[in-house]
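Hi C.,

You asked whether I'd gotten around to modeling the 214-residue construct. I have! Everything is below, sequence then structure, no commentary in between.
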Amino acid sequence: MRRSPAEIVREYGPFPGVEAVHGVSYDGRRVWFATGDRLNALDPDSGEITQVIETPADAGTAFDGVHLYQVAEAAIHRIDPDTGKIVATIPAPGAGGDSGLAWAEGSLWVGEYRARRIHRIDPETGEVLRTIASDRFVTGVTWVDDQLWHATWDEDGSDIRRIDPETGSVLERLDMPAGAGVSGLESNGADLFYCGGGDHGALRAVRRPKAKAR
C-alpha cells in the first residue's frame, strides 16, 4: 500500500451560519456542499457561495451531469439544480445511516457510515446492486479515472484512501493532519479532492497524488 500525508492546498470558510459540512460534490464549475438544511454552491476560484438551495441535506451529495442527488435521512432526493425542485426520491440503502454519495458508471455509490460499507445502487429504484466492505467508518465516496476513493473518520484520525472496487483492499492512503476530519468527498476530475471539514464548517482542497509510473 502506498501511504503519504495529505497535502491541503486550500481551505474555504468557515461560512456564516454553517456549523457542519455533511456532503460534497462538483458539477464541473462549482463545489456543492450540504449543510443540514440547504445545499450551497461554491465558486472554487473566488471562494464565494453563488447559489443556495433550501432542502434537507444531512449527508452525501452527488451530481450526474444534470441533477444533484442528496441524502436526506432515509431517502435520496434527485434535485434540479436550476430550480431547487425535488424531482424524484428513492430509499437510501442505510435507512438513515448513510454518509458519502457519488455518481459513476450510471449508478449511485453510497457510503454507509458505521456499517463500514459502500453500496452501488440503481438511481431509479434504490435497489442495491452490490456492496463493498471497508475496515473504517465511511464518510465520503468519489470516483476519478476509474479509481474508487473514500474518506474515513474514526477516533484515531481521518484519511482518504483508494480501494480496489472488487475486493475493498486499500491500495493508497492519504493521512489527514490531526484534527482535520473528512465529511464528504469529491474529485474535481483532475488533481484535487474537495473535502468537507465536518463540524469545523469548512471545505478543504487536497492534492490528488499523481499515478506512479509503471
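If it helps when you're writing up: The two ends are 15 Å apart (CA to CA).

Thanks,
B.
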